[in-house]
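Question (not urgent): is this output format expected?
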Amino acid sequence: MRIRPATVEEAPTIAVIHVAAWREAYRGLMSSEFLASLSVEKERSNGRRR
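Got this back:
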């Protein structure tokens, strides 16, 4: 297995995966309202600052 830094071109896909993973992993542990409020667009912009 090779691990490498993500590229800018991969950011949209990573954002979708991140939001979906949070919604699945925290279902029943966090409010459904909070999980529904997670935004792929917001995650994309957060990723640009990392």
